[in-house]
C-alpha cells in the first residue's frame, strides 16, 4: 500500500520581504536617488531634532526666580515657572487661587468618569455635568455667594478663560447646531428659511467681527441698566457663531443617511421627533464625528481671538508677559509653552474622536 502524502507547513516569507525592513526597502531605499534623499533628509531631521532637544532640555535653565538664574544658552523655563500662575489663572487674586484650582480638579474628574466606559451611571453623571457643574463653576469662580469674595471677570485670564469659552461654546453650540440643521431640512418653508438665513449670515462673518460687535457695538444698542458682562457677551457670540458651522456639519450627516432609513421609520409609524431622535440623528452624528471634533478643535483654538476685546486667554497672557521689562527676550519660551498647551488639548480631542469612530464603527467606514 502506497504511503499517503503528507503536506508540510508553509515556510515563513524571507525576512527581507516583510516587516520594517521590507517597508524601508520599498518606500525609502527603492532606488539610488531615493536612498540619497532619505539619507539627506534623515541627517537634517536628526540635526534639527538634536538642536531642539539641546535648546529645550540639555542646555536650558529650569530652577530660579529671576532673570539672573538664566545663565545657559538654551531655553529659560524659569520665565514660565515665574509666570505659571498667570498662564493658568490670569490675574485671579493669589489668595483665592484655590477656587479655579478646584474647578480644574472637578472638571478633570468629570472628564475621566465620562470617558471611562465602565463608570456606573454615566448618564446621571453626564446630566450632572451639563446642569449642576456649570452653576457650581459660576458660584465657585465668580463668588459673591456663600461667603466667597466676588472676583470680577476682568481678573480672569489664562487657561481659565480659554477653558470656559471652549467648554461653553462646545456644549451649547452642538444642540443648537442640531436644531438648526433639522430646521434647514424642514418641510415648513418659514422654519427652513429662518434657519438658512441664520446659518448663511453667521458663516459669512469672521469670528473676530462677531466678538468685536458683541463687545463694543452691542452695548450701544442696550440701555445702561441692562449692560451685560463682557465675558457673557463673548460667550454668546462664540456660541452663535459656532452653532452655524455645527449646523452644516450635522446637515451633511443627515444627507448622508440613506432614504430607506427615513422610509423605514415612517413605515413604523414613528413621529417626526422619535424618527429623528431614535433612528436618523444617532446615525448622522456617528458618521460626522470627525467633522464635529474638527469644529470643536477649531473653536478651541479660536478662543485666542478674545484678546481683541480685552480678555487675556492663555495666548494673551503670554503676549502680555513678553512685554515685561524684567523678562524681555524670552518670547520664544512663552510661545512654545502656549503652543504646547493648545496641542495637548487639541491632540486629546483628536485621539478621543478616533477612539469613538472605531468604537461606533458598524459598517459606514470604508
UniProtKB/TrEMBL annotation:
Subcellular location: Cell inner membrane; Cell membrane
Membrane topology type: Multi-pass membrane protein
Entry keyword Transport: yes
UniProt cross-references to InterPro entries, sorted A to Z: AA_ABC_transptr_permease_3TM, ArtM/GltK/GlnP/TcyL/YhdX-like, MetI-like, MetI-like_sf
Transmembrane segments: 33-53, 97-116, 123-143, 155-183, 204-222, 234-254, 334-356
Domain of life: Bacteria
Transport recorded as keyword: yes
Keywords in alphabetical order: Amino-acid transport, Cell membrane, Membrane, Transmembrane, Transmembrane helix, Transport
Gene3D superfamilies assigned to the protein according to its UniProt record, in alphabetical order: MetI-like
All copies of domain ABC transmembrane type-1, residue ranges: 159-348
Main location: membrane
Family of this protein: Belongs to the binding-protein-dependent transport system permease family. HisMQ subfamily.
Name of the protein described by the UniProt record: Amino acid ABC transporter permease
Organism: Enterovibrio gelatinilyticus
Taxonomy of the source species: Bacteria, Pseudomonadati, Pseudomonadota, Gammaproteobacteria, Vibrionales
Amino acid at each position: 500500500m502506497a504511503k499517503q502524502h503528507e503536506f508540510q507547513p508553509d515556510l515563513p516569507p524571507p525576512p527581507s520581504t516583510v516587516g520594517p525592513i521590507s517597508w524601508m526597502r520599498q518606500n525609502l531605499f527603492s532606488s539610488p536617488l531615493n536612498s540619497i534623499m532619505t539619507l539627506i533628509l534623515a541627517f537634517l531631521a536628526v540635526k534639527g531634532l538634536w538642536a531642539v532637544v539641546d535648546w529645550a532640555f540639555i542646555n536650558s535653565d529650569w530652577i530660579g526666580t529671576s532673570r539672573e538664574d538664566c545663565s545657559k544658552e538654551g531655553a529659560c523655563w524659569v520665565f514660565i515657572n515665574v509666570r505659571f500662575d498667570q498662564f493658568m489663572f490670569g490675574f485671579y487674586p493669589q489668595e483665592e487661587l484655590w477656587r479655579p484650582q478646584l474647578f480644574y480638579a472637578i472638571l478633570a474628574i468629570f472628564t475621566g468618569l465620562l470617558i471611562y466606559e465602565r463608570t456606573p451611571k454615566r448618564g446621571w453623571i453626564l446630566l450632572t455635568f451639563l446642569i449642576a457643574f456649570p452653576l457650581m463653576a459660576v458660584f465657585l469662580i465668580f463668588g459673591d455667594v456663600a461667603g466667597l469674595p466676588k472676583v470680577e471677570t476682568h481678573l480672569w485670564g489664562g487657561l481659565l478663560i480659554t477653558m470656559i469659552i471652549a467648554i461653553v461654546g462646545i456644549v451649547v453650540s452642538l444642540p443648537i447646531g442640531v436644531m438648526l440643521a433639522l430646521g434647514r431640512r424642514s418641510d415648513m418653508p418659514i422654519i427652513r428659511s429662518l434657519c438658512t438665513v441664520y446659518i448663511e449670515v453667521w458663516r459669512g462673518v469672521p469670528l473676530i467681527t462677531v466678538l468685536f460687535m458683541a463687545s463694543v457695538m452691542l452695548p450701544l444698542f442696550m440701555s445702561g441698566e441692562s449692560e451685560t458682562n463682557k465675558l457673557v457677551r463673548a460667550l454668546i457670540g462664540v456660541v452663535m457663531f459656532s452653532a452655524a458651522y455645527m449646523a452644516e456639519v450635522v446637515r451633511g450627516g443627515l444627507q448622508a443617511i440613506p432614504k430607506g432609513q427615513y422610509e423605514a421609520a415612517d413605515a413604523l409609524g414613528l413621529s417626526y421627533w422619535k424618527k429623528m431622535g431614535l433612528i436618523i440623528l444617532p446615525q448622522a452624528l456617528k458618521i460626522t464625528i470627525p467633522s464635529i471634533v474638527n469644529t470643536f478643535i477649531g473653536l478651541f483654538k479660536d478662543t485666542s481671538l478674545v484678546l481683541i476685546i480685552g480678555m487675556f486667554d492663555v495666548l494673551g497672557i503670554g503676549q502680555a508677559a513678553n512685554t515685561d521689562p524684567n523678562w524681555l527676550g524670552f518670547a520664544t519660551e512663552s510661545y512654545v509653552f502656549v503652543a504646547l498647551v493648545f496641542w495637548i488639548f487639541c491632540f486629546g480631542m483628536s485621539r478621543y474622536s478616533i477612539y469613538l469612530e472605531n468604537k461606533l464603527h458598524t459598517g459606514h467606514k470604508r
